[in-house]
Amino acid sequence: VDIDNKKVLSYLRQQGEETYLIVINLSGSLAEANLMDVSAYNFKPVLCTYDALPFMPSIKLQPYEGRLYKV
Fold first, then answer.
1. What are phi and psi of 10, to 5 degrees?
2. Cα–Cα–Cα angle for 5, 10, 12, nearest 5°?
3. Pairing of strands 44-48, 8-15
């Protein structure tokens, strides 16, 4: 999703009618992910390595933090 971000891996995964957003900070420092391209979706947190925070078009991730959202 945020293809130019060197610290954060983010992508959509679809299986049948379900859509997931995966966002992972691959660095040992704070990182920000720009998720404006998918902000029209109504994502809900499913799994987080830290606190389960609501989806935002721009999120800050702790070092090595991962989040899984589902539509």
1. -140, 135
2. 145
3. unpaired
